[in-house]
Amino acid sequence: MDLKQLCEIHAPSGSENILRRLIFDEAKEACGAENVRIDRMGNVLCRKKGTGVGRPHVCVSAHMDEVGFIVMGATEEGLLRFRPIGGIDPRVVISKRVLVGEGMLPGVIGAIAIHLQTRADREKVLGYDSLYIDIGAKDRSEALEKCPPGSYACFDAPYTPFGEGFICAKALDDRVGCYNMLKLLRESYPGDVTFAFVTREEVGMRGSAGAAYAIQPDLVINLEGTAANDLGEADNPFEVCCAGKGVAISFMDNSSVYQRKLYQKLTRLAQINQIAHQPKRGVTAVNDAANYQRAAGGALACTLSVPCRYIHSGASVCSLADVDAQYALTRAFLLNA
Questions:
Q1: I need a surface site. Which of 66, 232, 253, 326 has the fewest CB within 10 A?
Q2: Half-sphere exposure (CA, 13 Å, Cβ side) for 333?
């Protein structure tokens, strides 16, 4: 699968079925059906036997799910009430197109028009209690018949190349990681490698919690998309990472302090192989590496991220060169672990 296809699949946390089936089929082709399984959390786990002996067992992990929305009910006028799945700033969703329910009904996220807002309304961020999804239903009964409570909704956003080597799409977090893992699992490595496509990262890293205990690797490389802060007037120390300047190597985030020797090895490999890279200069966010680092007897872990502008929106932006750098550094590590 190419990155466009991966980004345009709808797979919010808890509803990864379509993407899971496609990844499972591709993984079976690359690794053999006997080496691929789906666990009870819906994770796709692929084991590749190493060509050598005495090497550590490495896990490469990426999450399949994306942020999205879930329907809670409807008003008498036929407007859907909803809540976010994952961390989505309500300021980025107003007037955005969405697809709702199993039938992928077109909808628009709405709010009271600015012409009708009070001064108090205009001086605050409208919360999700003030927003709705309009699917054109005539009343509450029709809205709930088409989209009952528990229906999922996703941003309706095409994958669009633009500029010099940049793309705009939804779900770059973390389809970039899934894309690179699908490429990596087609190769051979000296040591055993388990590729884990995990679920529900955006709602508390739930899929990787079970996967970590099942796999119990020695080393973990977690592939992610992370927030770039390279626009506006941010001073260099606060940029976190910059789109177009290489894969971001983390030394710490809000859920893990990564082992120094692994961080240093990845940095050296990037330098030796002339792979564009940068440290992730901010201690931000959480990710699946934390579960692998702490499960059972623990594992050495580090996260390699593609910097994404406007992350957790329907119009995230990244550099294809950074996606390639994430792949290249992960591959170099697997060949030298």
A1: 232
A2: 32
Going from the C-alpha of 239 to that of each of 188, 266, 280, 305, 308, the distances in angstroms are 37, 21, 9, 14, 12
- 104 and 22 in a single domain? The answer is no
Write down the pLDDT at residue 53.
86
pLDDT value, residue 235? 61
**Angle of helix 172-184 relative to helix 320-336, nearest 10 degrees?**
40
Q: Is 336 exposed, middle or buried (0-12, 13-18, 19+ CB in 10 A)?
A: middle
- Domain of 150 in residue numbering reads as 68-155
Number of separate domains in the chain: 2
Q: Which residues, at least 6 apart from 53, have a Cβ–Cβ distance to it below 8 Å?
A: none
Rounded CA-CA distance 299/259 in Å is 9
Which residues of the chain are under the pLDDT cut of 50?
Answer: none
Please count the other Cβ atoms lying within 10 Å of the Cβ belonging to residue 164: 9
Structure tokens at 300: 């050495």
Is residue 79 within 8 Å of 133, Cβ to Cβ? yes
* Six token digits for residue 329: 């550094």
Q: In what order do the strands lie in the sheet with 247-249?
A: 36-38, 44-48, 193-198, 58-63, 219-227, 300-308, 247-249, 277-279
pLDDT value of position 323: 98
Residue 329 lies in a domain: yes
Whole-prediction pTM:
0.94
User: Domain ends where: 97, 121, 155?
Assistant: 155
At 249-292, the pLDDT tens digits run 998 887 788 889 999 999 999 999 999 999 998 888 889 999 99
Would you state the structure tokens that stand for residue 171, as one six-digit string? 């779900």
CB atoms within 10 A of CB 105: 18
Angle at 263 between CA 319 and CA 185, to 5 degrees: 60
CATH (domain of 288): 3.40.630.10
Residue carrying structure tokens 């593609």:
306
